[in-house]
Amino acid sequence: MKKLLLSSLAFVFLLTSCGSKTKGELVGVQGKKWHPEKPYGMELIPRGSFIMGKAEEDMAQVQNAPTKTVTVRSFYMDDTEITNSEYRQYVEWVKDSIVRFKLAKLADELGMGPDDGGIGEYAFKDADTTKMSVYDRYMLDNYAGLGPTGLEGRSLNRDEDLVWDTSDYPDEYYTEVMDSIYLPEEESYNGQRIIDITQLKYNYTWMDIEAAARSRDGRRKDFIRTNEIEVYPDTTVWIRDFEYSYNEPMHNDYFWHDAYSDYPVVGVSWSQARAFCHWRTKFKNDDQKSRGKQFVNRFRLPTEAEWEYAARGGIEGGTYPWGGPYVISDTGCFMANFKPQRGDYAADAALYTVEAKSYEPNDFNLYNMAGNVAEWTNSSYFPGSYEYASTMNPNADSNDNARKVIRGGSWKDVAYFLQVSTRDYEYKDSARSYIGFRTVQDYMGEEDSTQ
Questions:
Q1: What whole-number distance in Å separates Cα of residue 405 and Cα of residue 394?
Q2: For residues 60 and 30, is the Cβ–Cβ distance under 8 A?
Q3: CA distance 393 to 380
Q4: 260 and 385: one domain?
Q5: Are the beta carbons of 430 and 374 closer than 8 angstroms?
Q6: Which of 79, 154, 236, 374 falls 20 to 30 Å from 244 in CA-CA distance?
Q7: Phi, psi of 430 (to 5 degrees)
Q8: Residues paired with residue 202 on neighbouring β-strands, in sequence order
């Protein structure tokens, strides 16, 4: 009997060995072949080293950017600043999600479904979860962006178009929900119905990797942070930034009017820009998941070093993204949108901002890395950070430092702030009519010159 059992075990082992694709060799876990995909609207910035800081004379005598050779890894960067049109896509997504959730929740409370018509057509799309894992049920629709609701795992119906025309509202329950997202009648004027923008909030979680890596105690959950951010840009910046100045048309029209769709978004704080990056990552990976593709790297704000490296466009000693040291071309045209002279904003053919794809791009094919709007970076502002920051992917960042580095200068700045090495900062919860942003995404693997 013992011999029979041993023979059986040997036979099973033989079958297992013969059927194995590895043939007993160490071949590694076989995953899908990774093919990097160039993100839409981005350019690949190849890894490299450069002399970061003030190689030219420091006319302002700030002495906070001594030269230092550093190296950055490859990354993708938006070829333009994020535009009003692109940011409106984010705002519309948040608004759409909030309205659909409100409709589905009320329909659920009323016990109405698609067969009942009216608000019932927007009821939750309950999937057959009997064959799903706990994780799959949770990920079905956890309302990322809305925060905890108590109704996680019930999918929103995004197939049914929302009705915005009041004359076409399907029933009184639908009307009740839609009225709740607008300002009350006494706060409206000129017969316009205005969305209550304070309801447009994006809720997301992230992990403080820096704190977790440096901590000797604490569990993973101790480093998970939750943020809730109002998404609508502060359009009042056009009034508040300039006292005794008539800028009402920009306040009224700049963000939402189609005439300004391709202009850079402003009035967005550093915190709002970070929330946008999280949403953009989610929006892309939701699509990747639906097509059975691997998730992409997260979108984020560039570090200060990445921003300067990209702005230089491969020109080592350039004062400006086009080289330097002049802001006027040999044909007599200004090379960027800024304030050329005291009180003269329009000498460069622009009073405020210009379209995001204006002027000539630098050698990395990036537009307006000088002027137009200054840009948020992920880095915190420390005057002496160049002295102690790493020479490999330097980034001085601190959650306790509310001052965040902005780069590039803007339409209201003099030429000094357009220089690729000039540092400036703003507080992270401040919004300005002259600060926008662009995003980056880490490149995975060895870069290919064809990307």
A1: 13
A2: no
A3: 14
A4: yes
A5: no
A6: 374
A7: -90, 145
A8: 229
Pair (382, 447) in one structural domain = yes
Vertex 205: Cα angle to 426 and 212 (nearest 5): 85
Tokens of residue 426, six digits: 């703003």
Could you tell me if 54 and 168 lie in one domain? no
Domain hosting residue 336, numbered range: 38-83+231-451
What confidence tens digit (pLDDT) does each residue in 341-356 have?
Answer: 887 888 887 899 999 9
State the pLDDT at residue 444.
86
User: In this structure, which amino acid lies at residue 10?
Assistant: A
What the block records as the tokens of 13 is 């082992």
53 and 130 belong to one structural domain: no
- The pLDDT of residue 148 is 63
Task: State the chain's maximal CA–CA distance in angstroms.
Answer: 102
Residues 108-159: tens digit of each pLDDT: 899 999 999 999 999 988 644 444 454 444 444 444 455 566 666 678 888 8
Q: 407 lies in a domain?
A: yes
Percent of the chain with pLDDT over 90: 61
Tell whether 68 and 92 lie within a shared domain. Answer: no
Residue 187: what pLDDT?
A: 80
Structure tokens at 348: 């460069």
Helix residue ranges, H only, 23-140: 84-110, 134-139
Q: Classify residue 302 by its DSSP letter.
A: P
Backbone Cα Rg of the chain = 27
Last residue of a domain, one of 209, 242, 263: 209
Considering Cα of 177, then 183, then 184, then 188, what sign does the dihedral take?
Answer: negative
